[in-house]
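Re-run with default settings, no changes from the original entry. Doing this only to confirm the output is reproducible before filing.
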Amino acid sequence: MTRFNSIKALVLPVILLVMAVPTMAGTILLEGNYHGKNLYVQNPFASEGVGFCTFEVKVNGQTTTDEINSSAYEIDLSFFQLPLGSAVEIRISHKDDCKPKVVNPEVLKPMSTFEVASLGISKEGVLSMTTTNETGGLPYVIEQFRWNKWVEVGEFEGKGNPEKNDYEVQLTTVHTGQNRFRVKQKDHRSKPRYSFEAKFNSPLPEVTFQPGDGKKATDAINFSEATLYEIFNGYGNIVAKGVGNRVDITGLEKGVYYLNYGTSTATFKK
């Protein structure tokens, strides 16, 4: 064999190998949780018009057996027998001159599916809750019923486990008499999911404020005890809210204001 033929014999397999490997320029990475639904992908032709854009799909590091050589394909997550709520990482490898489109990536986002096994409040004002069937880590919002409406008064992170989850939160907005609390959670679908109510009676004294209902205030509103409060102007816009025993009102314009505090409502003039 001549030297030329020897070089040719070495180079030819390398050329064939390079031709066999797709141009790897892009990867679509999707991360989230499995909620029992599959993904659908629109898969265009490569720009040279030969073959489709996607050349490999991996789920948690395993190459799928889905038929991806078509204009649209399904990533069948049920094939991997994933537990509901488990973490999922999907990598879609595609050629450099095109890009597939995942039609429904939201199916991997956390969803509010929690069920409340128990919800109660101790005499020390500690909210205790036990949940099951969580399938994603989403925050819980604590709401309290006062002033004839539900008011958000706290938040804590959900654990996201489908098994039993225990939570304890110290409440800072307990008022005199009957207190009503509930917990809600909202996912990407924007519709809140609520727990049932927890009620308890508190012996705390009724909160009062100075200068008093309908009176004129200049610098501050002073409460007899720390309380949740809201202040609205004459147009119904909220201008101050929080928890405390004093509110600085030096920045408010002159006029009549509406005050929610304790379990009461009142007005004052600035």
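The first strand starts at residue 24 and ends at 33. Confidence is low (pLDDT under 50) at residues 3-23.
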